[in-house]
Task: inverse folding
């Protein structure tokens, strides 16, 4: 009793001719039925099983690998400066955490460069976190001023950023927390990011790139890679 649709993206549509209609499009327009992606021709059973273990963790559904190219899933130590390794993260913060931990000699990102700016308030936030996280320097005078607000703990900064939709503050808060806990300075990290980033050249494919390609799973939609590392901000 189930109706199954096989389809691609808008660039893979069948030609419409002699009045042929798109029943999938018509069905979506006329009903409010919830549809689920249950299979893919891009990979086989092993990769599908691994993907399902992640999807279930975020309340997703199991997916079936329909490709005859089985693929391979391994849990192994990865050389972080290897050639053409694609690292997929759950969020941009995962990308920063990867860079902090592994410092690849050459890297780029999917979907455009992630920029970091050396703004004065970023250094104020860094100094606050260094004091706040050190039991020897923290006291009642430890505070961080931002947009006419005064904060005396990390939770209140996060709450303000969430309430105001301030994605910049939230991004730098999580980045600086990771750096301070690793006893690394923002200035040194900023210099590393600027010096080691090298975009793909026009005639260079992802699989030919001599370095690490970082991106979120969202940015990787519709792309294919020979070798992918799922970063540990995903749980499975």
Result:
């Amino acid at each position: 009793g189930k109706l199954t649709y096989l389809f691609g993206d808008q660039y893979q549509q069948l030609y419409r001719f002699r009045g042929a209609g798109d029943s999938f499009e018509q069905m979506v327009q006329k009903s409010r039925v919830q549809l689920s992606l249950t299979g893919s021709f891009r990979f086989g059973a092993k990769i599908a099983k691994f993907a399902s273990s992640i999807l279930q963790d975020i309340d997703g559904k199991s997916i079936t690998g329909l490709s005859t190219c089985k693929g391979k899933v391994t849990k192994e130590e990865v050389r972080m400066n290897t050639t053409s390794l694609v690292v997929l993260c759950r969020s941009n913060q995962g990308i920063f955490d990867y860079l902090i931990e592994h410092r690849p000699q050459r890297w780029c990102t999917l979907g455009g460069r992630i920029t970091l700016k050396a703004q004065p308030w970023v250094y104020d936030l860094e100094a606050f976190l260094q004091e706040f996280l050190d039991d020897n320097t923290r006291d009642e005078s430890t505070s961080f001023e931002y947009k006419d607000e005064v904060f005396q703990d990390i939770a209140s900064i996060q709450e303000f950023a969430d309430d105001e939709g301030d994605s910049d503050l939230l991004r730098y808060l999580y980045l600086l927390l990771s750096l301070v806990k690793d006893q690394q300075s923002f200035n040194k990290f900023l210099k590393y990011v600027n010096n080691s980033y090298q975009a793909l050249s026009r005639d260079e494919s992802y699989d030919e790139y001599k370095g690490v390609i970082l991106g979120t799973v969202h940015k990787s939609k519709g792309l294919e890679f020979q070798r992918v590392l799922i970063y540990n901000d995903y749980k499975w």
